[in-house]
């Protein structure tokens, strides 16, 4: 499945459900996000499953540093 990084970022922002708007780019480091926690990670796991039909784990997310790293998990 090929999805543009911009579309992936839109889905990511919906999945994490930031309380305040946050600018996110492919190079954004996950740990720099104000609401990046276990609940946000769970939202990303669900997003991968529901939106993209791909199963990922918490360990997969822990191995990622940036949004682009998460995007590469789709490959």
Structure, described:
This protein has about 80 residues and is mostly helical. The chain has a single domain, classed as Orthogonal Bundle (Non-ribosomal Peptide Synthetase Peptidyl Carrier Protein, Chain A). It is about 50% helix and about 0% strand. It has 4 helices and no strands. The chain has helices at about 5-15, 40-50, 60, 65-70. Helix 1 crosses helix 2 (about 40-50). The protein is globular. The N and C termini lie close together (about 5 Å).
Structural topology:
Elements: H1 5-16, H2 38-52, H3 58-62, H4 67-72
Helix pairs in contact: 1-2
Annotation keywords:
75 residues, mainly alpha, Non-ribosomal Peptide Synthetase Peptidyl Carrier Protein, Chain A, 4 helices, 51% helix, globular
Unreliable spans:
none
Decide which structural class fits the backbone. Answer: mainly alpha
CATH class placement = Mainly Alpha
- The separation of the N and C termini measures 7 Å
The quaternary organization reads as single chain
CATH topology: Non-ribosomal Peptide Synthetase Peptidyl Carrier Protein, Chain A
Order of helices and strands: HHHH
What overall geometry do the principal axes of the alpha carbons give?
Answer: globular
Tally of strands:
0
Helical coverage, percent range? 40-55%
- The value of Rg in angstroms is 11 Å
Q: The biggest beta sheet, please?
A: none
CATH architecture field: Orthogonal Bundle
């Amino acid at each position: 499945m090929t999805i543009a990084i911009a579309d992936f970022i839109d889905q990511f922002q919906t999945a994490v459900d930031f309380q305040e708007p946050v600018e996110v780019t492919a190079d954004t480091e996950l740990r720099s996000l104000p609401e990046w926690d276990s609940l946000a990670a769970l939202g990303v796991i669900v997003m991968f499953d529901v939106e993209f039909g791909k199963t990922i784990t918490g360990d997969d997310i822990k191995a990622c540093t940036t949004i682009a790293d998460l995007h590469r998990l789709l490959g």
